[in-house]
Design brief:
The chain contains 7 helices and 29 strands. By secondary structure, it is mainly beta. It folds into 3 domains: about 20-160, Cathepsin D, subunit A, domain 1; about 175-295, Beta Barrel (Cathepsin D, subunit A, domain 1); about 325-340 and about 370-440, PDZ domain (Pdz3 Domain). A 6-stranded mixed beta barrel has the order 4-5-10-6-9-8. A 6-stranded antiparallel β-sheet has the order 2-12-11-22-23-13, with no helix packed on it. The radius of gyration is 26 Å and the shape is globular.
Amino acid sequence: MKKGRLIFSIVFILNLSGFAQGKFLLQDGVKDKISFKLLNNLIIIPVEVNGVKLSFLLDTGVSKPIIFNFVNLSNELRINQTEPIFLRGLGEGDSVEALKSKNNILKIGKAVSIGQDVFAIFDPSLNFTPQLGVPVHGIIGYDLLKDFVVEINYSKKQIVLHDPEFYTPKSCRKCETFALEFSNNKPFIDGSAKVAGNEPSVPVKLLIDTGGSDALWLFNDKEKNITIPDKFFIDFLGRGLSGSVYGKRSKINRFSIGGFSLGNVNTAFPDSSSISFAKKFKERNGSLGGEILKRFNIIFDYPNRKITLRKNSNFKKPFNYNKSGISLEHSGMRIVKEGNDRVINTGYGNLGAGRSSQQKTITTSKSFKYVLTPSFAIVELRKGSPAERAGLKLEDVIIKVNSKDAHDYSIQQVMQLFYDEDGKRIKLIIERNGVLMKFSFQLESLF
């Protein structure tokens, strides 16, 4: 066995010897298909780091790969040649401490990069797993996309990596191709936004952000005629590298890219204190996120600085938003006692005088088992929302939703119930400090 493993290692090293440092190349063939999970409008792909199988978020808003919660992975990954560094991103907090590691091997499908730089973050709070309910160990963006023509098919939940040297675009009458502009290795596209029906459209330059689940972020800027609509509510927008991001949620009349136009679009206006880092690129007016991007099948052609869009079946779906005011996170596991009724049938028959009779006894047996189930806790609660007015509080753990055990849902399914139509009644049983409590409220529109 030892000899076999040694031979495999030598062959693997020889196969990698032709790879350029820090550049992804396809091991076999001119293209490769990779299936992904789409969770909360975010793309999760399988990535191997130094032989360890992990899951990464595909995020066009980042340059170098970043690994989260490194303390729990350090023994497996064997990251070396490190130096301390501080990273800054969205959020109201300070920079975060990380390690810059060189000469790592990354594998995504048949694409391999050796000599790859990776940033490893220690802070356990910087982690997508609690929000998505599945393990997410890191993020990757530019370093993968720069080396291929990348098709993202949101309909099939599939990515295709093409070797640029052998890629020929297919004829597509319903497609539109646009120029990409890059700043700090991040892609930007030009569009237009019409805030209200009686106002003119204004040009906007937006970061294409597959790592953002919202539809659209706009930076409030009166000089550029980008203003917040009269109807809005203050909300938690998400967590960035440097902390939580808050802002105002509203809807704008119309958003357009070329000949593609979307109406009544959910739009967030983040607080200026949360986006100071993002506004270092002065021409940037906001971000184009997953809620809009998933309405297209997309071809990223970083080598030629182009992007091609084609509408898919999601295009005409309405833009909904969370009407409950609740944000949930996976908060560990709960032990749940489950019971099963087992029915035992015992029958016997007596024959006599040309006729038959049969008696049957039925008994039941009760059995129990204890299982570990995911626990969903309230981590953000919008002030004045239906949920807050009903009496729900932070850290309440959801036990039942509309008479169904919460653990029978995924966290995305629970959250989706909060996006339902106006007037929908939500009934919750929660656990607070070991006590079960019942709450009920109706979803309501703020627009």
